[in-house]
């Protein structure tokens, strides 16, 4: 752990520290830590320069409780909006830290939880061309090569890593596992559709990317370009053998959390209507995707934990439950006691 990060953790505990909470401007040819600041609760907010994307990236971290000991790392990826609001502020966005109890849930677990901010509509992929609206997208390089080095240095990484994501990021989690086959021991997809190259998969990808005003052609080329198939985890499921795997989805039918007083709704009937109509439709689709992926794993005799709920929508309340249900699998893979 650097003096900088140690100082921020001391400050977060309400003690004095004389070290500055900033780092000199980064080299353009290397990923490096720019700044560390204490956030709300246990959160430590990093700004990391990505050489691959030539820009700073905000990363919210929940440090393991014993900061002097080594700890594995769980990367939690957000959905289509990258976890931030329109201004890029994660504190006002929908993400793992604002919509779930991840802060308190992991407070007694010796694991460092890392939540990158940004990547709206990107599938956290390395795009083949810069996009006029979304800019340079090299998230795979950032997440598998640049960021882990920073995290392991600052937070005593043990070398064991896992990744999980919701919705769009449920696809990305498997794509990252394929791109970096020795990096992760476990992968989770909550309400995701991992198939990208068939007609249904391309339609979903096009909808997600264009919904953020990006052009899917800049990501993987025209339909039929080999990059679409190369980035399809369903086609390359055999390469996932040996990982601990968790996949889940609701069916889109209203469930116990789809009420006006459900998680994140605060009694707002219009939010509930959106969750039932839009969220219900989305999880009806991801249910089919999850069933297909589960069947593919069975065909290949690849062990996987599959949670197909009889009800439930595309919403954070259910993903909070998924995180809790999947934790025993992730803890075993990461060797968290």
Q: What is the H/E string?
A: HEEEEHHEHEHEHHHEHEH
Molecular shape: globular
**Radius of gyration based on Cα positions:** 19 Å
Q: What structural category do the secondary elements indicate?
A: alpha/beta
Order of strands across the biggest sheet? 1-2-3-5-4-6-7-8-9
Tell me the major beta sheet.
Answer: 9 strands, mixed
DSSP summary, beta strand count = 9
- Contiguous low-pLDDT stretches (5 residues minimum) are 15-29
Report the helical percentage.
25-40%
Any chance you could write out the topology, listing elements then pairs?
Blueprint: H1 3-12, E1 32-38, E2 44-50, E3 55-62, E4 71-77, H2 96-99, H3 102-105, E5 112-116, H4 139-155, E6 157-166, H5 168-179, E7 186-190, H6 199-211, H7 217-220, H8 226-230, E8 244-249, H9 269-299, E9 305-308, H10 316-334
Parallel strand pairs: 4-5, 4-6, 6-7, 7-8, 8-9
Antiparallel strand pairs: 1-2, 2-3, 3-5
Q: In summary, what is this structure?
A:
The protein is an alpha/beta fold. It has helices spanning 3-12, 96-99, 102-105, 139-155, 168-179, 199-211, 217-220, 226-230, 269-299, 316-334; strands spanning 32-38, 44-50, 55-62, 71-77, 112-116, 157-166, 186-190, 244-249, 305-308.
What key attributes describe this structure?
alpha/beta; 9-stranded mixed β-sheet; single chain; 10 helices; 337 residues
Explain what the structure shows.
With 337 residues, this protein is of the alpha/beta class. 35% of the residues lie in helices and 18% in strands. It is built from ten helices and nine strands. The protein has helices spanning 3-12, 96-99, 102-105, 139-155, 168-179, 199-211, 217-220, 226-230, 269-299, 316-334, and strands at residues 32-38, 44-50, 55-62, 71-77, 112-116, 157-166, 186-190, 244-249, 305-308. The longest helix is centred in the last third of the chain and has 31 residues, at 269-299. 50% of the residues are buried.
């Amino acid at each position: 752990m650097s003096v900088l990060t140690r100082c921020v953790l001391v400050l977060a505990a309400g003690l004095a520290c004389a070290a500055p909470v900033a780092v000199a401007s980064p080299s353009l040819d290397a990923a490096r830590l720019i700044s560390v600041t204490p956030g709300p609760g246990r959160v430590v907010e990093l700004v990391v320069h990505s050489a691959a994307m030539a820009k700073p990236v905000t990363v919210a971290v929940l440090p393991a409780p014993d900061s002097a000991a080594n700890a594995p790392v769980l990367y939690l990826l957000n959905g289509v909006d990258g976890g931030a609001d329109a201004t890029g502020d994660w504190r006002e966005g929908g993400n793992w830290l604002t919509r779930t109890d991840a802060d308190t849930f992991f407070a007694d677990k010796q694991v460092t939880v890392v939540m990158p901010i940004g990547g709206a509509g990107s599938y956290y992929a390395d795009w083949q061309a810069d996009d006029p609206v979304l800019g340079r997208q090299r998230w795979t390089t950032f997440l598998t090569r640049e960021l882990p080095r920073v995290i392991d240095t600052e937070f005593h990484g043990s070398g064991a890593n896992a990744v999980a994501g919701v919705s769009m990021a449920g696809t990305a989690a498997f794509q990252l596992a394929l791109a970096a086959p020795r990096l992760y021991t476990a992968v989770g997809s909550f309400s995701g559709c991992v198939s990208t190259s068939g007609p249904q998969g391309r339609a979903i990808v096009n909808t997600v990317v264009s919904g953020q005003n990006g052009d899917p052609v800049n990501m993987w080329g025209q339909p039929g370009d080999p990059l679409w198939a190369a980035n399809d985890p369903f086609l390359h499921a055999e390469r996932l053998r040996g990982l601990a795997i968790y996949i889940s989805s609701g069916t889109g039918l209203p469930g116990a959390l789809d009420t006006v007083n459900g998680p994140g709704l605060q009694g707002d009937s219009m939010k509930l209507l959106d969750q039932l109509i839009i969220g219900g439709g989305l999880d009806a689709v991801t249910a089919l995707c999850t069933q297909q992926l589960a069947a593919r794993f069975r065909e290949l005799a690849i062990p996987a934990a599959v949670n197909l709920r009889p009800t439930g929508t595309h919403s954070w309340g259910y993903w909070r439950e998924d995180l809790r249900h999947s934790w025993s699998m992730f803890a075993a893979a990461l060797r968290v006691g």
